[in-house]
Write a structure and sequence with these properties.
25% of the residues lie in helices and 42% in strands. It contains 3 helices and 6 strands.
């Protein structure tokens, strides 16, 4: 499969080079993920292979990004598979919820306040929360 991907990328390069009349991409992002096999050990091995990278963390995903000019290679993990969830408190929120005799009603709901501890993967790498 690796050879197939490399061949396909080379075909893209050759195609774009052979067709200067076509607009060139402004940037290219390549996502790499295997949601069946993701954990901190896998992320650490990828980080070692990348040597230098950026981390991008949002509400759902944890990404290791290696940039080559306007091309980026993004290794994507579910944040919950790599980072540790920590409940730091609770808060009361007013939300609209379904009710039996009316479409929606306001209800006060207690929700957890969560922080995430995302690991340092290499020496010199910044720990993110």
């Amino acid at each position: 499969m690796q050879d197939g991907i490399l061949r396909d990328l080379q075909e893209l390069i050759d195609f774009l080079g052979a067709h200067p009349e076509l607009p060139m991409p402004k940037n290219i992002e390549i996502g790499v993920y295997d949601f069946k096999k993701e954990d901190i050990e896998t992320a650490g091995k990828i980080a070692q292979g990348l040597k230098t990278f950026e981390k991008d963390i949002d509400d759902t995903f944890f990404r290791l990004i290696k940039r080559f000019g306007d091309v980026s290679l993004r290794y994507v993990f579910y944040r919950s598979a790599v980072c540790t969830k920590r409940v730091v408190g609770t808060k009361t929120e007013t939300k609209m919820v379904p009710a039996s005799n009316t479409p929606m009603v306001e209800k006060e709901i207690e929700t957890e306040i969560i922080e995430w501890d995302c690991p340092t993967l290499l020496e010199g790498d910044q720990k993110d929360a």
